[in-house]
Each structure stands twice: as C-alpha cells, then as structure tokens.
Amino acid sequence: MPPKQQKAAPEQHSSCAGVSQFVAYALGKFYFGFAYVLGKFMSGFAYVLGKFYFGFAYVLGSKLVDRR
User: CA 9, CA 56: separation in Å to the nearest integer?
Assistant: First the structure.
C-alpha cells in the first residue's frame, strides 16, 4: 500500500501544477483583455467627456456673452 500512495502523490502534484498554470494563463489573458478594453473605454470616455465639457463651456460662454 505505501508504495502506491507514494506513486499517486507525484501524479496529483503534476496535474495540480498543470491546472494552476492553465488558471494563471487564463487569468492573465482575461486581465490583459480587461485592461485593454478598460483602456479603450477610458480613452473614449475621456474623449466624449472632453467634447461634452468643451461644448458646455462654449454654450455657457455664449450665454454669458449674450447677456452683457
């Protein structure tokens, strides 16, 4: 019995290592993709927000000038 248990332990360890490597790989791909999408979103969001603020400032400036 003890030799079989010793033989089974390395196989379990190698399969666990394979699973952990796969999880690390998948998690890395997910985070890379997530960071890329978030970066694109933030860039687009900043662009839209900048356009909105520019337009808002322009309209506000026009209203203030018209009142004078």
Answer: 67
Rounded to whole angstroms, the Cα distance separating 35 from 41 reads 10
CA separation for the pair 68, 53 (Å, rounded): 23
Helices (H), the chain: 2-67
- The one-letter code for the residue type at 14 is S
Q: Once rounded to an integer, what is the mean pLDDT over residues 24-37?
A: 88
Please tell me which residue, 66 or 28, carries the higher pLDDT value. Answer: 28
Residue labelled with tokens 């960071």: 35
CA distance 32 to 42: 15
Q: Which residue has the higher pLDDT, 25 or 7?
A: 25
